[in-house]
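Quick question: what would this complex look like in 3D?
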Amino acid sequence: MYATGDWSMTQLHRELTARGLTTRATPRRASKPIRLSSLQRILTNPYYKGDITYHGVTYRGQYTPIVPVEVWAQVQTVLGMHTTAADASQIHDHYLKCSVFCGQCGHRLLITHARNKYGKIYPYVVCAGRQRNRDSCSRQAMPISRVEQLVEDHYRHVQITPGVRQAVSGMILAEFDRLINDRSDELARLTGNRDRLHHEQTKLMEAHYADAVPLELLRSE
Ligand SMILES: [Zn+2]
């Protein structure tokens, strides 16, 4: 069914569950509907086309393949196409991503892209709580531009309290003090060096004029 390309993994999973596909019951666990991830593993497992993989090496199994090799290969192609499509539709980078929450239920607001009947794609914001369970929250999807506007309006009215203002200005002034102190330490060190060198030079010149140091030695200093 999946090889036809007409089914998404989720649709196939739903259909198979409806048709009664379950895991095998073990003495410890009752059989239950197969999980989506297990279905994914089954579709990609080379065992079904008659290959056995052992320590990363694939061998031809000594049994009749469960599905023909061509069908298995076709399934991998379809999987590849669906994965690429899913990846492409999941890149929704936006500055509001992960930072806005639903005012009704408190869940994160997700950014999705909806396509209108002309094929144009619009970014929408939907509540993650509602997406998981439609009855838990009644917030409708909103165009992202509307949310951006609301966020801007909100920040226009945000005022920092005198306490916060004082704390922030204290931090900034302390940082300036630290920078100025570093500078003046460095300046004092350099000034000290300069004075010491100047003093030595004077001493040497005095010694030279007193004929205590020959000119050659003074040159080499
Ligand atoms: Zn909500």
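Answer marked as accepted. The mean pLDDT is 81.
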